[in-house]
């Protein structure tokens, strides 16, 4: 399946998740999570990493096609790595974010929105001793990638 091909996903309130069976960036299944309230995409142990979450700040656009909701995900260049199950984290790709803003790949308004959402993600899900991943994600998550089913 092409990396950009539509995949089935489940939506529960402001959480969407989908399974990626095998991908050129990792071996074995990975469950991708999207937190619609802050516009982030989360995946645990991508790229052969061990014990880390990769959090992309993304744009999420909803489109309807023949009665089916399709989410279009757009990378917003700014990423957060959550170490283990938090609360430690680091922010990466600030150079890419700056270049995208400077060259007009994203507007100043979009850049400000991304920074605001990044801060909201950190405050809501990591700062002040928060438990990570949050309960609404951990219900559908498994560190060994043997994910609970929906139903």
Automatic annotation (TrEMBL):
InterPro entries listed in its UniProt record: DUF402 (IPR007295), FomD-like_sf (IPR035930)
Pfam families: DUF402
Residue intervals of the DUF402 domain: 44-126
Coiled coil feature spans: none
Highest taxon listed in the record's lineage: Bacteria
Protein name, as recorded: DUF402 domain-containing protein
Classification lineage: Bacteria, Bacillati, Actinomycetota, Actinomycetes, Pseudonocardiales
């Amino acid at each position: 399946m092409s990396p950009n091909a539509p995949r089935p996903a489940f939506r529960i309130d402001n959480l969407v998740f989908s399974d990626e069976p095998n991908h050129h960036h990792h071996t074995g299944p990975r469950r991708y999570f999207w937190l619609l309230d802050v516009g982030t995409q989360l995946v645990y142990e991508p790229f052969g990493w061990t014990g880390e979450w990769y959090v992309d700040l993304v744009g999420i656009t909803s489109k309807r096609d023949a009665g089916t909701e399709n989410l279009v995900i757009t990378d917003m260049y700014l990423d957060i790595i959550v170490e283990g199950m938090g609360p430690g984290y680091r922010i990466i790709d600030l150079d890419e974010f700056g270049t995208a803003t400077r060259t007009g790949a994203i507007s100043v308004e979009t850049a400000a929105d991304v920074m605001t959402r990044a801060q909201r993600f950190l405050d809501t899900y990591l700062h002040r001793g928060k438990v990570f991943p949050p309960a609404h994600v951990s219900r559908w998550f498994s560190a060994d990638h043997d994910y609970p089913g929906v139903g």
